[in-house]
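Q: Convert this sequence to structure tokens.
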Amino acid sequence: MSNASNNSGVGLLVRGLRRNFGAQEVLKGVDFEVQPGEIFVIMGPSGSGKSVLLKHLIGLEEPDAGEILINGESITTPEIAAKYRMALVFQSGALLNSLTVGENVGLYLTEHRLKSPEEIKKIVAEKLEDVGLQDAIDKMPGELSGGMKKRAAIARALVIEPQLILYDEPTSELDPLSSVVIGEEILALNKRIHVTSLVVSHDRDLAFGVADRIAVMAEGKILVIGTPDEVKKFDHPLVQQFLNADFKRDL
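A:
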């Protein structure tokens, strides 16, 4: 198993982030800070602004106001953004069906010619072993279960030795057992390589199972930030409605 223990996570600061789409105000002054090496979960109902926020963090959207800083430096300029290694684990996994699992994991290194073929093969094997998929290196994505695809996507993210990993709904479309495996993988990686992890999810079990701290987002704003226990006890109607939503059936 690979050893990246000297790979230190980075601090992330989001300050006063605002974004409008026409007359619709989607982000209404979002503020939060993630400490180096922390697992920070942003959760909330659909339409709360989580996806738009994530697009800003990875540079796909520019805010109307506010800033995003890594280790105190604004990432709005390409020069600063390039200093830091940030990886995104897509909600769908986003594996290319025409490539093997190993080729998918090593694609970034291959396309940018950053390593020799022999080095890439070794790195890919290490990262797949890190997520328990060493035997799937020659399989096609269509041969994998949903949970295995997610783990392959995590292995692909690990190839760049990230300092910050962003997870977009990592348990989406997974059964409960597979969801637990992904949660355990996030925890294990955080412990093993000390990466900073930001998880965007509406999965309450995942959030309370992996998070050091949780931010609950609704209607474009962060309503509360705290430890899992602090968030559970936070007396706000929208927070409690989201955390305690359950199906009720009259018998």
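Residues 192 and 216 are 27 Å apart (CA to CA).
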